Amino acid sequence: MTDYTDVFTGKDYVHGTFLLASTEAEYDYAEYEQFCEDNELEPKGENSTDYYNWCSEMASEDYECDMENIKDHKPYNIPVTITGVLGLWDGKHEIEPVEEDSVYDAINRCFGRDINDIKVFYEDGAIKVLAMHHDGTNVFYIKPTNGRRLKYMYA
To answer: Quick one: how far is CA 151 from the chain centroid?
Structure first.
């Protein structure tokens, strides 16, 4: 493999970072107005709870769709290992490697309790997950497994 070989497919990849999925999304107010018009609803103000809730629902739907695409992407349906760092109030803590059956399962593992938002990137041939929470950001890397199965995550 070269420095530019995708660790999942064994093929050359485009150097760079690409967003695969995110629970953070911004929606233009005009999109909300169009949604309301299409559904014969009266749009509320741009700073309304209704608009905020609509944005949150749209972000959830988009994230679920993106995750289904990841789940269905054949090269990602192999055993993988998660490594990374927890960003906590008292500093960074490296985790013990954790194995999952697929990239999809690994991302869901990274989206653990108390996570507010998550971003999933394809970064230079690997998967990088940023899991944001009230104390900071956890950073995880997902790569194909080489070695025995590990079952637990430790901080």
So the answer is: 21
Domain regions of the chain by residue span: 17-144
Query: Tens of pLDDT along 84-134?
Result: 999 999 999 999 999 999 999 999 999 887 888 999 998 876 789 999 999
Whether the predicted model's global pTM rises above the 0.70 cut: yes
Q: How far is CA 35 from the centre of its chain?
A: 26
Q: How far apart are CA 142 and CA 99, in angstroms?
A: 9
Collapsed DSSP state (helix, strand, coil) of residue 61:
helix
What are the residues whose beta carbons fall under 8 Å from the beta carbon of 24, sequence distance 6 or more?
A: 59, 117, 119
Residue 91, phi then psi, degrees to nearest 5: 120, -170
